[in-house]
Amino acid sequence: MQVAILGASRNPERYSYKALNMLRNHGYKVVPVHPTLKEIEGVPVHNSLSEVKEKIHTLTLYVGPRHIGSEIDAIVKLNPGRVIFNPGTESEELKAALDSAGIPYMEACTLVLLSTGQFEKDSAILN
């Protein structure tokens, strides 16, 4: 399964960096997205969601609501199997767009879902 990380970081203190490594350790192919980075831990970074051509099972968000507004169309066009709003990324505008497009979403912490074995379980409805 491929998991896109919007707001990926190469700073080891950032949760998006920790999520990238934890997802890889759990066997997921990660697709990091950041406007200026070229790679993180040897993984090529897409500079925008529009560059992502792979089918994305899960899009996990690590950007605040003030930055999500400009990404809504790209997120809907990406048509991921689900979107995870990590704490602090909640956007009512994006939720409404996802509802309209029929894209499931959840408010959760990717790190907690992975740590407790719920990441895969919560995605079962998508298979």
TrEMBL record:
InterPro entries attached to this UniProt entry: CoA-bd, NAD(P)-bd_dom_sf
Protein name (database record): CoA-binding protein
Limits of the CoA-binding domain: 1-89
Family matches, as Pfam families: CoA_binding_2
SMART domains, per database record: CoA_binding
Gene3D superfamilies: NAD(P)-binding Rossmann-like Domain
